[in-house]
Structure formats: C-alpha cells, structure tokens
Design a protein that fits this description.
With 362 residues, the protein is of the alpha/beta class. It folds into two domains: 2-184 and 347-361, Rossmann fold; 198-345, 3-Layer(aba) Sandwich (Rossmann fold), CATH 3.40.50. It has 13 helices and 13 strands. Strand 1 (2-7), helix 1 and strand 2 (38-45) form a beta-alpha-beta unit. The longest helix is centred in the first third of the chain and has 19 residues, at 71-89. The two termini are 13 Å apart.
C-alpha cells in the first residue's frame, strides 16, 4: 500500500503555459486517487483548481493559494513550502506532475516526477531570446534536481524518454529509472455532434507552435480550395504576428478546455501545427470528438497518433494542402475507428496502474 502526496498548488488554468499539462495533472490525480493500492492520497491544491478535482472519497485536499498568485509565490512553493508540506503529511511518496524538484532543499518523502518534455532545452537551442536567462537557468537547475532526487521518473512517450536521457547526458547528470506511463483520455459523450462548416485552428504565441506556418499554409489552402466556411482560431496570438483579414477568419482567443472540446466536436477538421512536443494532445482529442486532425508529422505526434489523422510535413505547403483535402473527405466511420483505437492505447486506468506498480517496486 502507498501513501501519496500530489502537488497541484502552483497550477492555474488562467496563467499556465500549457493547458495540456494542466488537464493531464487534474485527470491523473483522479485516477491515482481511485487506485486501490493507494491508501492515503493528499492533494496540494488552490482555490482555482479544487472545484475541478474529481477525487475518491479517501483523498484529502489542502489549499495553498500563495503558490499560484505571483511568480515569487510559485518559487517559494517550489523551493521550500512544497517539501515542508509533503513532510508534514507523513506520506511515503511525493508525486510532482509538472516534473520539477527543488534545487534548494532535499525531500523527506521519496519523489516521483512526471517529465512531459524537454521544452526548456529546445528553446535554449532554437529560440534563445524567447526565454530570459534567469528563467532558463531556474528551470534547468530544477530539472537537474529532478534527475538527482527522483526514485523514478515517468513520461508520456518513448520520444520524451529518449530526449530526457540525451539531456541528462549533455548535462552530465545520472538519469534515474524512466518509465513511459503515457497519457489517458476521457471517452467523449455518446453520439456525434452535427458538423458545421468550420475549421478549428490551435494558435499560440509560443514560437515552437508555428502559428505563422499554420496561417501561411491555411491562406494558400483557402486560395486553392475556395472554402466558404469559417476558420476559428483559439489561443493567444503573438502581438508580432499579423492576423490575416477576410471573412473566413474568426479570432476567438483563449477558451476553457470544455469549450475547446465543444468547438472540436462541431468542426470538420482541427489544425495542430508544431515543431516540438512531448505528446500533442489536441490531435488525439480531435479524433475522440469526431473530427479529423491535420497535424505536423513529427516523431512524438506520430507515436501518439499511430495511423490516425492526416499528418503533413512542416516543410511542404503541398503536403498540408493534401492533408486538408484528405481530412475533409474522411468518413465518420473511419474517425470512429480511430477513436476506438486511440482510447484503447491511451487509457487512464492503465496509466495509473503502471505508475502505482512502479512506485510499489521502487
């Protein structure tokens, strides 16, 4: 039997840089709390997260609102208060769903961390001016601490596991046992929503998301296809990027996860462009909501999607146009088959089972 403390106190849907990691963290908490081999389960939360938690009756919730209000509060939580709170529970394990340990203190409970990607190192190499040197240093030191302090590290794909091992080698740090636990997805509501003549684009002000490429490719596709519907753009667009004008484009901004899923459900295709990911959740979610995803053909997305969806090369406008053509004529029966396969591969109870088994034998 395991006693587990789980940290969500520094997460906030309004300020997070990754809605995906926020969603994964909440859902993983639910399934771990329900696992019969976890005897005691304490979640460190805050007032924005607690209303969205769906936990087993045995779980306890402790709120620490200072951990999410300011950057200083987050640092105080990460480096000192988290470990003190974990020690006070008396639990044997502390689970960090965002994967960053304190480089100031040593943990009293055993630590398990979920490392989703090596995005900081990717930015250091490819977009060195986007993240401040201080922030880059902070997260690099935190990741080194994760490697040194964790009894076991979990990740989402074999791609992320390889990336973490390579980063550890470059940093000159021994890597603990790394286990690919994967992600899970919640089955959609029964039935299929009626499709509207809409395309959904996930936009972002983060440079690796390549919203610039998506806009350029979609603009060319609009010219060739004579598509007369709407392109709904959700997310935050960089102030340095010019919004294309025209009756097809609708700039909506950031939306809550439930609204994004509803918009997927009613769209004919979902566009997800990126040059680096740990996994790539929106492409899977689009299939589960009955829409065909058109996504960048990069290793983690190929691993997550298998044969589902319509991948395209980031280096080829023609490849994108062909992927769009395939997506818009893909029959619902095909998407339904993809959805069944993806739910079988990405299954929350299986993820929780794998994590608990590793903790029991660590």
């Amino acid at each position: 039997m395991i006693d587990l403390a789980y940290s969500l106190a520094d997460q906030d849907v309004e300020t997070t840089k990754s809605i995906g990691i926020y969603n994964i963290s909440l859902q993983l908490a639910q399934y771990l709390s329900e696992h019969p081999q976890i005897q005691k389960f304490t979640v460190f939360s805050n007032s924005t997260v607690s209303p969205h938690l769906r936990l087993a009756a045995k779980a306890r919730v402790q709120e620490y609102n200072f951990a999410r209000r300011t950057r200083a509060g987050r640092m105080l939580w990460d480096q000192w208060a988290l470990y003190r709170s974990a020690r006070a529970t008396g639990h044997g394990w502390l689970f960090l769903p965002k994967g960053f340990c304190s480089f100031v203190m040593q943990p009293r409970p055993q630590v398990a961390a979920f490392v989703h990607d090596i995005m900081g190192d990717f930015y250091r190499q490819h977009y060195p001016g986007h993240v401040s040197k201080l922030e880059s240093f902070y997260f690099s030191r935190s990741l080194v601490a994760t490697l040194r302090q964790s009894r076991v590290i979990f990740t989402n794909t074999e791609f992320s596991k390889r990336e973490l091992a390579a980063w550890a080698q470059r940093a000159g740090v021994s890597c603990p046992k790394v286990v690919v636990a994967g992600y899970g997805f919640t089955p959609p509501e029964p039935g299929w929503a009626e499709k509207e003549n809409r395309i959904l684009l996930f936009a972002s002000d983060l440079p690796h998301k390549r919203t610039d490429l998506a806009i350029r490719f979609l603009t060319r596709w609009l010219q060739e296809s004579k598509f007369d519907g709407n392109i709904d753009c959700i997310g935050i667009l960089s102030s340095r990027m010019t919004k294309p004008k025209g009756r097809n484009w609708r700039w909506i901004g950031r939306v809550l996860p439930a609204q994004a899923r509803e918009m997927m459900r009613r769209s004919r295709a979902v566009i997800y462009v990126s040059e680096y990911e740990g996994f790539g959740m929106p492409a899977v979610e689009a299939v589960l909501e009955g829409s065909c995803p058109v996504f960048s053909d990069i290793p983690p997305l190929r691993e997550a999607m298998g044969e589902a969806g319509c991948p395209f090369s980031n280096d080829s406008e023609a490849s994108f146009i062909k992927a769009m053509e395939r997506a818009l004529v893909t029959p619902p029966e095909t998407i339904h088959g993809w959805a069944a396969g993806l739910l079988h591969r990405h299954h929350w109870p299986a993820v929780a089972k794998k994590i608990v088994q590793e903790l029991c034998h660590a």
